[in-house]
């Protein structure tokens, strides 16, 4: 009887936490997404169709995958501007390894996948090493890495696009599974893994502690440098996965691929409620933020809005998200 009462009390406490989070955190964001979808479906009936919604998920897949790792970095009060260049570099290195292979060459396809992931993780680790142990400013470090990774991509490719990869590689970007596009499935899997890692593991709790107060986290025995290092390594790995999906979708690796992607990634993360000051954020919020951007892009396109105004509206949404975050931070002081 006591055990049953304890379970009921625990269930009620969990329900209260969820309701409180919906009221103060994700609830308004989710409500905004739903209202925008309703408004767009009224203005353009073709918006609320299976094909359009699936297309939105595919379009945001690359940004969404990269945003998972970026969420960890920003929660620690860091920033990663190299993600777009790293997406391009990972895809180009994989394309170089697979050059001249036939579509049925499974071994080279798997090699391309492995090399892309290793390159992404290594570049992310270099960012993490520079920020954590060399104590360099994240903005400057990742800005420099953005230029170096893009330059290396151009040097490897000689400025040329590389085409035709093995099916084992393109499957992650161009195939379907249980009737759903592979990019969408890969994105959802990465988001689920990221959510579990952030909310259900010791590492995730340490990420929040480091972002909240590095000195307090260090005094509590948390290996702050190692946590920061791992978050940047994770960001590099997810950027590589995004690069694999993008190259697979296009069946080609472009030197200019993912140009400016870092801004979309940061936008999705910030709109999703992750604070640029660190210590607060969620993978679920990032998912909603990324989808919101995709909904705005596709919806305005269906309405025939000038693309320049679409970019302006995106900027306005980002500005509003940063403003709300700043107001929230000031209220806590």
Automatic annotation (TrEMBL):
What membrane topology term does the record carry? Multi-pass membrane protein
Source organism superkingdom: Bacteria
CDD domains, per database record: TM_PBP1_transp_AraH_like (cd06579)
- Pfam families (UniProt xref): BPD_transp_2 (PF02653)
UniProtKB keywords: Cell membrane, Membrane, Transmembrane, Transmembrane helix
Q: What is its main location?
A: membrane
Query: In the record, what terms sit under GO molecular function?
Result: transmembrane transporter activity
Kindly give the InterPro entries that the UniProt entry links to this protein.
Answer: ABC_transp_permease
Q: Gene Ontology terms, cellular component aspect? A: plasma membrane
Q: List all membrane-crossing ranges.
A: 24-44, 56-74, 81-100, 106-129, 136-157, 177-198, 227-247, 253-271, 283-302, 308-327
Q: Where in the cell is it found?
A: Cell membrane
Protein name as annotated: Ribose ABC transport system, permease protein RbsC
Q: What is the lineage of its organism?
A: Bacteria, Pseudomonadati, Pseudomonadota, Betaproteobacteria, Burkholderiales
